[in-house]
Amino acid sequence: MKKISILGSTGSIGSQALAVVEAFPERLEVVALAAGRNVEKLAAQAIKHRPKLISIADPEDIPQLRALLGDFRCEILAGDEGLEAAAAHPDADLVLSSLVGIAGLPPTLAALEAGRDVALANKESLVAGGSLVLAAKERGGGKLLPVDSEHSALFQCIEGREEQVETLVLTASGGPFREAKPEDLANVTVKEALAHPNWQMGAKITVDSATMMNKGLEVIEAHWLFGVPYSRIEVLVHPQSIVHSLVRLVDGSCLAQMAVPDMRQPIAYALSYPERWPSVVPQLDLAKASLTFQEPDPELFPALALAREAALAGGGAPVVLNAANEAAVAAFLAGKLSFLGICAVVEEALAKLGSEKASSLEEVLALDKRARSLAEELAKLK
């Protein structure tokens, strides 16, 4: 029985992880759940999975949460204290870090420092704090298991072949605008940006897929996860989302991991690793599969270049990239910024703050706050 703690249990990844838990009740047990403000959903999850600890973002929500739990009793915490307690729970063998945003970095570090294996679905942890995460992993001695479908694919293809890797190839669906022309994006609506053709995801990452900022962030993640220089990490648009990523080997071979586009597959692999359990998703029908690949259009997806520039600059630039993008996407979703304004805000924030230093958790969080505030102000001017 593998005991798990889920950070971000009411979000898209957390909810799908609990569906995997339900598929393997004899192999997985939930010992802690941490969520944001969705009190009703957290209470329902707790009643169903009977964890020893649950955490909610706001302490003021505890009375409502306790009332919704009825006869079920467990430890209830809130805020940063609750997140850290869930992340470092003494009974947890593995922690799924699926919080959205920079809030996922401190508990991810806490889990790794405590020696837990971490199934990582929080991009910001590696984008903003890659060196911090790897250092915490080394000190704690646990494993870092990627949950993003692309990094899970790379992990599966690379394992045991680390010295044979030539290039990593991250595939991208291209989102809802992959067939568009740059001039078509001037009047994109929120509804259009959220209409992803292949994946069911949260709003923020769906918009990131539409701009392809998500792929830029994933390039940075891949660098930290696999120790491969940015010059050897490629991105290809693969509209079918069947090949989740590829690895080119030094002898000219190319290994790909393929599966139906369903996040439960990489989640299940991270939770079951190093084993493989029976599929929780439909098997891929190869007879009906169509595989095409193309280079991303730099005019259509300027976020990719912005992310690479920030990655190569290093220091605090990736922190600013991530924070400004989060703030800009939030402004777009709120109807306060145009779709094209997202990259414009990020670019300007990088120009103003990209050379700042961020070598400690305190510096990362401080720079994130400054970049977020700056991006919010810039969004008002666009």
Please tell me about this protein's structure.
With 382 residues, the protein is an alpha/beta fold. The chain has a domain at 2-146: 3-Layer(aba) Sandwich (Rossmann fold), CATH 3.40.50. The chain contains 15 helices and 11 strands. The protein has helices at 12-23, 39-49, 62-69, 79-87, 105-113, 123-140, 149-158, 190-193, 203-211, 213-226, 264-272, 302-313, 317-333, 339-353, 361-381; strands at residues 2-7, 28-34, 53-56, 75-78, 94-97, 117-120, 144-146, 165-172, 233-237, 243-249, 254-258. It has a 7-stranded parallel sheet with strand order 4-3-2-1-5-6-7, sandwiched between helices. It has a 4-stranded mixed sheet with strand order 9-8-10-11, covered by helices on one side. Strand 3, helix 3 and strand 4 form a beta-alpha-beta unit. Helix 6 (123-140) crosses helix 13 (317-333). It is globular. The N and C termini lie far apart (53 Å). The model has no long low-confidence stretch (mean pLDDT 95).
Write the layout of secondary structure elements.
Layout: E1 2-7, H1 12-23, E2 28-34, H2 39-49, E3 53-56, H3 62-69, E4 75-78, H4 79-87, E5 94-97, H5 105-113, E6 117-120, H6 123-140, E7 144-146, H7 149-158, E8 165-172, H8 190-193, H9 203-211, H10 213-226, E9 233-237, E10 243-249, E11 254-258, H11 264-272, H12 302-313, H13 317-333, H14 339-353, H15 361-381
Parallel strand pairs: 1-2, 1-5, 2-3, 3-4, 5-6, 6-7, 8-9
Antiparallel strand pairs: 8-10, 10-11
Helix pairs in contact: 1-11, 2-3, 4-5, 5-6, 6-10, 6-13, 7-10, 9-13, 10-12, 12-13, 12-14, 13-14, 13-15, 14-15
